[in-house]
Amino acid sequence: MIDSHCHLDSAEFNEDRDAVIERAIAAGVTHMLAIGTGDGPPDLEAGLRLADKYSAFYATVGIHPHDAAKAGPDDFKRLADLLAHPKVLAVGEIGLDYHYDFSPREIQKSAFIQQMEIAAAAGKPIVIHTREAWDDTLALIEQHWASHGIGGIMHCFSGGPAEASRAVDLGFYLSFGGLVTFPKTLVVQEAAKSAPRDRILVETDAPYLAPVPKRGKRNEPALIVHTARKLAELRGESYEELCDVTSENFHRLLLLN
Ligand SMILES: [Zn+2]
Ligand SMILES: [Zn+2]
Q1: What single string gives the DSSP state of each residue in 111-146?
Q2: Over the stretch 222-235, which tens digit does the pLDDT of each residue have?
Q3: Ligand positioned closest to the Cα atom of 33
């Protein structure tokens, strides 16, 4: 199984990072995608440092919507240069976050658009973070991304069947995380049931959003088994089947590009 989204650069893993990685591998996680947003620019290599050190990691580079206001022209140029690294598979996580509004919305939009242009020029998929911003996120993707035919990932998918089908139509894969195990996320569970088999992925977003029965604790990639089991149960598939399908999907989108 592949954890398609984690932040193992987080300081929460400073005490036991090697043990966390060993537990992931023991749980059946073959690879992890280290999201490279870190603490924001000028440092863009938070994911790459892990990918350079450990064979189980691939990386992304990107400027999170929270950090959009910290980014200048030099950061976008550096980001474009880092896409040449063989272990950098995508640009992300990028998008819009209207829940926290840590960066002004117009600046979030501009950073999002610039990074879609950089990803398109490099032919790399994008990893989307969207919170309370579905309409603007999908509209910007329609205007600035869809025509390139490259696709991407809706990370920690939080929408329902309607958002799922709009995202799939735009060429996106839906990555389900701990949210799908929470009892009150019936809408997300509906989306998980009906999502096309060739468009689903599974992730932890560690250290955030630990799945039930570890909800509220620090999340780590080994806990992905709880999310994968729930997803398999919702879809009426076996656990093994779900692991195989999500790994195949990850390969198709990110490694054959
Ligand atoms: Zn996110
Ligand atoms: Zn994340």
Answers
A1: HHHHHHHHHHHHT--EEEEEES-HHHHHHHHHHHTG
A2: 999 999 999 999 99
A3: 2
